Write a sequence for this structure.
């Protein structure tokens, strides 16, 4: 199938944990998509031409609509491809909250256990350029020794949280919410996948969590849907030729009176806080879309979730 303005393009790299969350959702929905590999460290000129400065991975592109952050990507996939839904069992919305838990708490524990647990601390994997890049990303020193010292304590934190999952699975259910896989599974799984790729020894704790270990295999077996590859240049050409499908809309319930047409700055509230400036197209409790123009890609609309991002008049 030749790619077009309706194709799902995932700007990603293979060992990116948050990309794995999205890839599992693509698998649950059985979708066809294009992987557009981005560099692991800055500079990422093609990615930032699309996003206006957001540098994190994954970013999803459909034509001239650019979705930054796994949460808004999943929301958009659910809206465009509702069946099968990622809201399964009794989950009607709290799945995103489970994502906040896995993305902030479990992810941070896993990173320390993985990087700090390696034989020479983080130095083994992380070369000088990687360390400098992640220091710029987080605004904190990339301290291999601190991670090495913190790893044993974080292993306890990780085990305690995985033990919650063990209990969730205690009645013999296949996936976290019951018979079908959904957003909770994709969210809770990707940290284990990351640890497996980078430092599998850290998953020795699963020996005492047999239900988690078996569930991990079941989520892995879902796969990633149908993946094709796409070059960064081709992705930019598609954006340039396409027109955003987002309609202007002012939400009357915006707590601070944000209005369509207003100039705003959007930035992540945690790490990678690069500001993105544009004109507000639409917003809701869960979504903000801004349009901006770039020499290489023309006019694009960039979408962000609200949880985890600040939107400020600029
Ligand atoms: N809240 C973001 C987090 C994304 C994130 O932290 N991604 C990592 C890779 S998995 C990243 O971008 N690291 C820096 C980089 O790759 O340049 C999301 O849910 O997508």
């Amino acid at each position: 199938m030749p790619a077009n303005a309706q194709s799902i393009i995932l700007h990603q790299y293979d060992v990116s944990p948050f990309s794995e969350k999205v890839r599992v959702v693509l698998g649950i929905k059985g979708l066809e998509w294009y992987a557009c590999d981005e560099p692991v460290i800055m500079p990422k000129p093609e990615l930032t031409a699309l996003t206006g400065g957001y540098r994190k991975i994954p970013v999803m592109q459909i034509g001239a609509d650019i979705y930054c952050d796994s949460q808004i990507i999943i929301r958009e996939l659910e809206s465009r491809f509702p069946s099968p839904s990622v809201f399964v069992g009794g989950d009607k919305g709290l799945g995103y909250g489970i994502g906040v838990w896995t993305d902030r708490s479990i992810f941070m524990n896993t990173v320390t256990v993985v990087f700090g647990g390696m034989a020479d601390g983080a130095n083994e994997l992380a070369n000088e350029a990687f360390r400098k890049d992640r220091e710029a990303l987080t605004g904190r020193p990339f301290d291999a020794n601190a991670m090495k010292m913190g790893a044993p304590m974080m292993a306890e934190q990780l085990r305690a949280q995985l033990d919650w999952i063990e209990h969730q699975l205690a009645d013999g259910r296949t996936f976290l919410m019951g018979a079908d896989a959904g957003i909770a599974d994709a969210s809770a799984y990707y940290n284990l996948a990351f640890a497996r790729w980078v430092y599998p020894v850290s998953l020795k704790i699963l020996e005492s969590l047999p239900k988690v270990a078996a569930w991990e295999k079941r989520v892995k077996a879902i796969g990633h849907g149908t993946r094709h590859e796409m070059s960064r240049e081709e992705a930019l050409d598609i954006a340039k030729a396409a027109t955003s499908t987002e309609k202007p809309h002012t939400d009357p319930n915006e707590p601070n009176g944000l209005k369509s047409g207003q100039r705003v700055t959007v930035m992540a509230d945690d790490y990678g806080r690069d500001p993105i400036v544009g004109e507000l197209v639409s917003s809701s409790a869960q979504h903000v879309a801004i349009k901006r123009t770039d020499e290489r890609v023309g006019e694009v609309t960039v979408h962000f979730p609200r949880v985890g991002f600040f939107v400020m008049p600029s």
About this structure: The domain at 95-222 is CATH 1.20.1050.10 (Glutathione S-transferase Yfyf (Class Pi); Chain A, domain 2).
